[in-house]
Amino acid sequence: MTDLFAPFALDFFQHALLGGALVAVLCAVVGTWVVIRGMAFLGEALAHGMLPGVALATVLGLPVLVGGALSAVAMSVGIGALQRRARLSYDTSIGLLFVSMLALGVIIISHSGSFATDATAILFGDILAIGPGDLVLLAVAATVGVGVAALCHRPLVALALDARIAQVLGLRPRLAQAALVGLVTLAVVASYQAVGSMLVVGLLLAPAVAAGSWTTRIPTRMLLAAVLGILAVAVGLLVSWFAATAAGASVAAAAIAIALVSWALRAALTAIRAAAHTEAHSAAASSALRDPATAAPVAPDAGAETPATAPSVSIRS
After folding, report:
1. pLDDT tens string 306-315
2. Which domains are delineated in the chain?
3. At what angle do helices 90-110 and 51-60 cross, to 10 degrees?
4. pLDDT tens across 40-66, in order?
């Protein structure tokens, strides 16, 4: 057992765990809304949409997070522009820009002298290279993301129910939608170094999906998703250390595995409860047949007159 946790004594491993935990918290908050609103395709598109900016920043020796952020913001603006001016549907606009940005990113990388190294780091991340400066940036990103989500909670809930209701209530659904797109952009850019642009959606979606099997309240779902995300980071790092696998891919795979296990446990629990309920009904029916005194009253004859009764209505708040 001591050997299992030995890697956590190393400084770079601690940095990776802490940085991954900050990313997990941010992705849990944003990912919950992404799952509720069905915006997984947008998250995937933004993950690839930041590729040109990251690639250009890598080639020029500039901060990659800045390049990725500018590229992702440009793609978000482009999606809105295509919707308004070209009158394309939301998914069509995303699909067009998704392919365009991905192709542009690959073209930029192919012109660099270290194509293989740059492509690997960009696509799959390098969580073990997170340093103290990166931790500060991730802490700021997580704080901003959680703060914006808290401030926009009511508008986002109303928007998830019906945009018209949000408009009537004066909650400005367009601003809420823009805030949500901004949160997705922030989560994707912040998660880039941990799991790369190819795997970021796994960390964004899987913990939120896993948490959704156990709770329906949004704040509770976010909290549980954060715990499961941090667990995925720890498990993925340990698997990477002992199995000599890519750290970012191991973290993403651990998150997916946790989602699958959560779904399987929930399905098994539901099946057990259903079987117990059926067995209880069967036992009650058998007991009633053996002892007529405990049987339900016999219904009146169809031809007999019975007083009219109003139907019972139950309204749950």
Report:
1. 444 444 433 3
2. 7-197 (1.10.3470.10)
3. 20
4. 888 888 887 888 887 788 778 777 778
The answer to whether 8 and 169 are in contact (CB under 8 A) is: no
pTM of the full structure = 0.80
